């Protein structure tokens, strides 16, 4: 199996902690930290996630769940008083694919860590999958405003664990974290299966 990820700042890669470093915070990153279990640069990891995400092949889900369970004690996300939610895909994409992979992940995590799960966000604007956007075009901040709070949400929790399948530039997850923080959430941690650039 792939070597585990180094613990580092999710945005600049500074080693030592998986919290967002002070410099990246000062530059506007809203996400407080990121738990990531595997390197996206690993061809097996990329292939399995690709089957799931782009081909909609749900038969790979037991493999993904196994990877997550194997890593759960090595690197635990902050869990106290946290609500699990997900970075949603656009509703038209969900209709096409039949499911939202980040939503599925949030359900698994809720069961695994015995945490409450609640959909808090909707995607109001359709964008290309970030891993398919050319590297130079990906920048933190370019996706601000693509998320809104789910209309059914009446009260927001103070701490949120935000799930997505993959973290590449972090632009999508940071835009979602920004939306949550602008509406009163105090702490937002990310959780992904794999981190790294598509090209590596
Ligand atoms: Zn940093």
TrEMBL record:
InterPro entries linked: ComF/GntX_DNA_util-trans, PRTase-like, PRTase_dom
CDD domains named among the record's database cross-references: PRTases_typeI
SUPFAM superfamilies: PRTase-like
Domain of life: Bacteria
Protein family: Belongs to the ComF/GntX family.
Protein name in UniProt: Phosphoribosyltransferase domain-containing protein
